[in-house]
Structures are given as C-alpha cells and as structure tokens.
Amino acid sequence: MAAPLATRQLADLGARVIKVERPGGGDLARGYDHVVEGTGAHFVWLNRGKESLAVDLKSAAGRTLVQRLIASADVFVQNLAPGAAQRLGLGAEQLRADHPELVTVALSGFGPGGPYSQRKSYDMLIQAEAGLISITGTPESAAKTGIPTADIAAGMYAAQSVLAALLRRSRTGEGATIDVSMLEATIEWMGYPMYARMYSGVEPERMGVGHTAIAPYNTYPAADGEVLIGVQSDNGWRDLMTEVFDRPDLVADPRFVTNIARVENRAACDALVAELSARFSVAELTARLAAAGVPAAQLNGVGGAVEHPQLQARDRWREVGTEHSRVPALLPPATFADHEPPMGDVPALGEHTVAILAELGMPEADISAVLAAGIAATVRRG
C-alpha cells in the first residue's frame, strides 16, 4: 500500500498519475474485498484520481510500452519485490542513465543492501521488526496497530521526497534516485519510546491507551460510557480537580502534585480519577472538561469518526466515482485557501489503456494487436 498511498497524495495535489497494473487481475488490493459497492475498500482509498494502464511487464512488448511512457514522465514510483524492477529493465540506475532528469522512487521493506533486503515485508512484519508491536496493546497482549502504519509511514515519506526532488530539479535540472524503507520509516515514527529505550536501557511497557510518561492519561468511566482524559501538565491537574471535579483539596496532594509523582502513583491516580468521573454522564463530563480546557475525547468507533460533527461542519466530504458507483471520499488533510484537490475517480482495471497507448503514438491497428495478444488490456467503465 505504500506506493499507492504516495502516488494518491500526489494525484490529490494535481499530478497526473498513471498506475501500471497486471492484465487479468491488476493490483491485488482490488480483490481483498468488494465492500465499496463491489470495489475493494483498500483500492478505493488508495487509488482515486489515477489512470489505469493494464500491461504485461513480463513481455518484451509490454516493457517497451512502459519504458516509452517513462520517457515522458517526471517521476517513476515502484514497490515491486526486491530486484524485480532491475530484472524488468526498470531499475533506477538504468532509467536515470537514459533520463537524467527523472525522479525514481523505490519503496521496499528493508531498503537495498543489508542482510534483510530480500525478505518479504508486509506491514505487520515491519511493525514487528520495528518494535511497534512490542509497545502496542495491553500488558497482557501485544497487538499490531489497527491501520497499516508501516505502509502509511513509507508512503508519506515517499510523497514528501518526490516533492523535494522536483523542487531541486527545478533549480538544478537534475533528477533523483530515492529509496524509502518501510522499516526505517516506521522506526523513525517510534520517537519517544525509541529514545527512552536508548537512554534508559528499559524496554517500554505496553500501556493500552495509557502513556508511560504521563498520568492521568487513560479512559475513565462515566455513568453511561467512557471518556479519555489526558492531563499533560501540573496546571492541567489543577484544572481537572478544581474546575471539573470540584475537589481543590486534591491539587496539592503529595501523591499527585507533579506529573512525576502521578506517574509513580499511577494506580492510585487512575483509581481516584475513575471514582470522580463516574459521577457524571458522558455528555456532562465532556462538557465540563471542554469548559475547563482539560484535554479529553469521547471514545468513538469508526462509525462515530465517519459521522464526526467536525467533518460535517467543515464540509470535508466529497464524492468520487468507482467502476460501479459514486462513493464518499474525505478531502486530503492539507487545506489550500485558494485551491480544492481534484478528487478524481477510482479507475477500473485498464480503463485508460487505449487512450494512453494512443497518446504514445501507437496506431489503432497496433493497439488492437497488443490487446488481442494479451500484452495489454482495457475495460469500459459501466
């Protein structure tokens, strides 16, 4: 998912993105499920605004077509298995020799070289190798994150690197050869636990929704549900006790007066906050916390996030087309004051094959021939 996410971000920013897929199946994410009106959820999320060229890279004719396409491109992004691009004649060294101005981006699990470079690298495996699973979950049970964090991290860095490379090229005329490792992207995101382990020698604990260095920071009961409260300063503790719970007598309690003390007495601190929070309904408690400026949140499910009133108030939903229907899509997070992202359709497999081959100057008879031979494929949107 890393390369599709990177290129979808570029499409959202206005790039023309041509996705090269296998005839007869295409991107594997097309078939993970069919929950979005007959189209795979992962595929809809990652591929809006792109054109689909279905061509067989295992054939010499197919490779020639893609090489002709690359000759007119600014950027070539691939996350094929290690060594596959080179075997197909699409390795960065060869492409940059032919096109010095080209920006090439190769995404992989572990990066080129090193003892792990040839290993399989699905998101879950990278989360494990990066230590992310070791700190995710509860003390009793480790867990991977509920979203493909390693893929997303690598995709974000890949998109960012493309923009930087294009800016540099505009000044120097030179392209770039870029490698993005899922492992390195994910370990970079480890941030606090990484540095805490490096300098304390102690492995971080799994804390559920808690935080190893902050208290109170957890979910706490209300009379009719739960609320997450995260007090990150001693002033926040004062506000929580005085303005939310009407217990100013607890502000100076030596067990809780500083964050260090609260962390040392975490069990007592959590028990106290839970006892006080349980007196209020979710609505009343969240209102009091908001009025006091104490960081807090309702524990939404995914449905609650989709229907979040903030998204509705800010008009963040649009519609995009798929091969079967029109579906909601969330605007990209970066908001330009004077420009709205194009939010193009999700392509059917090979939907743009004929148009792209014609654009490359291929005669109609030759296009028909490569389609008949199975070197390329196309489909009309229903």
The backbone outline, from C-alpha atoms, is elongated
What's the architecture of the largest domain in CATH terms? 3-Layer(aba) Sandwich
Taking all Cα atoms into account, the compactness measure Rg is 26 Å
Structural class: alpha/beta
Q: What does the main sheet amount to?
A: 3 strands, mixed
Give the ordered list of helices and strands: HEHEHEHHEHEEHEHHEEHHHHEHHEEHHE
Number of domains: 2
Per the CATH scheme, the topology name of the largest domain is Rossmann fold
What is the name of the CATH superfamily of the largest domain?
A: Crotonobetainyl-coa:carnitine coa-transferase, domain 1
**Oligomer category:** single chain
CATH top level assignment of the largest domain: Alpha Beta
Number of helices: 17
Strand content: 15-25%
Q: State the separation between the terminal residues, measured CA to CA.
A: 26 Å
Strand order of the largest sheet: 1-2-13
